[in-house]
Design a protein that fits this description.
InterPro entries: DUF2098 (IPR019209)
Keywords: Coiled coil
Strand content: 25-35%
Organism: Methanorbis furvi
Number of domains: 1
Protein name: DUF2098 domain-containing protein
Strand order of the largest sheet: 4-3-2-1-5
């Protein structure tokens, strides 16, 4: 297949995705590697081997937690918007 091996840390150049190879496979004459960070397969000829130090420096974000925090901020903003009014429904005309 290639000089890449399971357990090696690589970067996919097009998106900057970094991860460790957890599986190697070949299909229709092309070699692919599955990365632990995404669970997706990438063509091996598109991957670049990097050191583990670079991989550890990348921040692992919990997007579910980020979403919950954003929803809570939105809820609080909606609730506080009504506190700043006198609850009347005045038009202008």
């Amino acid at each position: 297949m290639s000089t890449l091996a399971i357990g090696q840390t690589v970067r996919y150049g097009r998106t900057g995705t970094v991860g460790k190879i957890v599986a190697l496979t070949e299909e229709n004459g092309s070699a692919f590697a599955e990365l632990d960070s995404t669970g997706l397969y990438y063509r091996i000829d598109q991957l670049t081997a990097i050191s583990d130090v670079v991989h550890k420096e990348t921040e692992n974000r919990d997007f579910r937690k980020d979403l919950e925090q954003e929803q809570e901020k939105f809820r609080e903003m909606n609730e506080s918007a009504w506190q700043n009014t006198d609850q009347s429904c005045e038009g202008g005309g």
